[in-house]
Amino acid sequence: MNSWVNSAEILGSDLPLELSGTGNRRALLMDALREAVRSGRLAPGTRLPPYRSLAADLGLARNTVADAYAELVAEGWLAARQGSGTRVAERAVPVTPVHRPRTPERAARPVHDLVQGQPDPSVFPRTAWLASARRALAAAPDDAFGPGDPHGRPELRQALAGYLARVRGVRAAPERIVLCSGAAHGLRLLAEVVGGPWAAEEYGLPFHRALLASHGVGTRPLGVDADGARVDGLTRRDRAVLLTPAHQFPTGGPLHPGRRAAVVDWARATGGLVVEDDYDGEFRYDRQPVGAVQGLDPEHVVLMGSVSKSLSPTLRIGWMVLPQRLVGPVVTAKGEREQFSSATEQLTLADFVESGAYDRQVRRMRQRHRRRRNQLVAALERRAPHIRVTGIAAGLHAVLELPPGTERSAVRAAAWQGLAVEGLADYLHPGAGQAERAEDSRDGLVVGYATPAESAYPEALEALCRALPPG
């Protein structure tokens, strides 16, 4: 069968072509396609319209239809071959669908993603990156194509030393920089070298705490308030403390200057280590730059950073700026050869930094994220003025403060709106002492505004506002 079927043949007469309603439109389309195959309305081998044509017929976004096709191909309902389009898969017997019960938290796959931490992949600077890659490969020395040095390429360490000194106030020679594949990799190496126990902010990434625990390093929580981590809770027993001083994650705000000095004093007095996760350090909007704590004492602070937010997490390039005494042990723990980051990508990033393209990309992203943040704030002022927004002077997310006891219901309501978003409680350290914190409990949503495409962002904000508790 060579001719395309039309949208009516696909969906049948019982489903409006515009797929109206508040449900997940991709899920509705997928259900309609499955039913058309099950009923025989679409026979094996039937060629479906190109996703662009079907999207135009149904009034849907092209990505919605493309994603539905791709998922049904993965499930085996459809088959796609280069040059022959998408067809109904050939089957000996009809497929019996598997019906999974819907829970309130997972009513459907999200239509909109407001989970923090992911930049929009469509804004990766492809042209500038390709230009850097060409220059880097043309100039690459022969040893770049041999076994890699676990320190990382010297070209990138040199470029980072200059950039971090200029932008983040870091004091370090290239010899003190060890490249890694990101913050998680850096934490694994430090856990192996430093040992435990560590202190950590009571609000933070559960993944980081679990990663340290998997390497035998336990963490205990430090309270967090408007001035950042309460570092006066550190003790001599703590081997290290994990902080996000540029922009406390996820509650927002920089570490108070007095506390920055106090945590360095603790490290000097006890021999402890300050592990500074430079989370969102480059993305500030309404405040002056806040330098890295590492600049106060390079011998007692490790600065960790990466390009996951500014460029892409797929590059798997991060760095640690280390005290001199830790460089050798960390390199030894990493292994005899570079196993984690491509030498050619390291060389490309070195050129990207040295050419000024990285500065331009950060400025571009900063402007884009500021605009996104302003859209979020404006939508809340218009639709939910009773909701207070915090942590918006920097970063890629905001915290929406909710009335006590409403966080879980708001997360469930968001799921029913087809919206992925996380509650503040998801980031709370399990040892934070819920009983003694009962009077100081915080309900909120952690809303990431970097991920959605430009065309989808307004609808995502509308879904968010519909999910919020009334005033």
List the helices and strands and how they pair.
Elements lengths: L6 H5 L13 H15 L11 H8 L3 H14 L2 E4 L3 E4 L23 E2 L12 H14 L14 H15 L8 E4 L2 H12 L3 E4 L4 H9 L4 E4 L1 E2 L2 E2 L10 E4 L13 H14 L2 E5 L23 E6 L11 E4 L2 H11 L8 H12 L2 H27 L4 E3 L6 E6 L4 H10 L2 E2 L1 E2 L19 E6 L8 H11 L4
Parallel strand pairs: 3-15, 5-6, 5-9, 9-10, 10-11
Antiparallel strand pairs: 1-2, 4-12, 7-8, 11-12, 13-14, 14-17, 16-17
Helix pairs in contact: 2-4, 3-4, 5-11, 6-11, 7-8, 7-10, 12-14, 13-14
Question: What would you note in describing this structure?
Answer:
The protein is α/β, with parallel strands linked by helices and 471 residues long. 38% of the residues lie in helices and 14% in strands. It has 14 helices and 17 strands. The chain has helices at residues 7-11, 25-39, 51-58, 62-75, 126-139, 154-168, 183-194, 206-214, 257-270, 324-334, 343-354, 357-383, 407-416, 457-467, and strands at 78-81, 85-88, 112-113, 177-180, 198-201, 219-222, 224-225, 228-229, 240-243, 273-277, 301-306, 318-321, 388-390, 397-402, 419-420, 422-423, 443-448. α2 crosses α4 (62-75), α7 packs parallel to α8 (206-214) and α7 (183-194) crosses α10. The chain is globular, with a radius of gyration of 25 Å. The chain starts with 6 loop residues before the first helix and ends with a helix.
